[in-house]
Amino acid sequence: MHTAFHLYNLIMGVLATAGLGYLFYLHQYEIEYNRFVFVTVTGIVIFALVAPVIEAVVQPLVHFAHAVAALFIIFGLYDPVNNDLRKEQWAELLLKDPTTIRKPSEWMVPMDDRILELFHTSDLVLTPALIAYNIDYSREEVNRRLSELEEHGLVDRVERGKYRITDLGEKYLDGRLHVALLDNDETTESDHVNSESEGITGSDDESPDS
């Protein structure tokens, strides 16, 4: 009976840890800039997964594992340096509108979010006419924005007049992609290629002194 109980705890711990791991994967950007989330979740993982393993192998140490887990959770929820319960930080993280964590670039306009959200919610290949009908913009405006989004890798044209959202577009919607940084990387790479091309051209133009 004891073994079955330990096995049950271990299975539940593995499932909980897998769920938290998937959550980490989906919200890497948020966790990177909110270390208290990582600390809190580490405590939960120790409690849910590590403690059951210790209980099954070295039962007397399980209370030590629980204590360590509690410390991680406490320091994730409470900032002892500033005597702060982090209520506002957790409320902002859990209740905020997803659009507030997105990092658009200077070339982007609010319509771009509407277009990408429609792709995301429908999970379909869409035409400019269908997009325009659903977001109340003209087809010409939608066509212009789709061209921009395709150029920057947020949507993909599967065939003439038909588009779908890309992985980069999904990451942008989730707040996991800073489009401006992506643009900077592309610009830097383009400048590097151009400078190399200019160097090659320049060397071809030079002729040895006779």
TrEMBL record:
Protein keywords: Membrane, Transmembrane, Transmembrane helix
HTH crp-type domain: residues covered: 123-168
Segments for region (Disordered): 185-210
UniProt GO MF annotations: DNA binding
TM stretches of this protein: 6-24, 36-54, 60-78
Keyword hit for Transmembrane helix: yes
Pfam families: HTH_Crp_2 (PF13545)
Classification via InterPro entries: HTH_CRP, WH-like_DNA-bd_sf, WH_DNA-bd_sf
GO BP terms in the entry: regulation of DNA-templated transcription
UniProt keyword Transmembrane present: yes
The protein, known as: HTH crp-type domain-containing protein
Source taxonomy: Archaea, Methanobacteriati, Methanobacteriota, Stenosarchaea group, Halobacteria
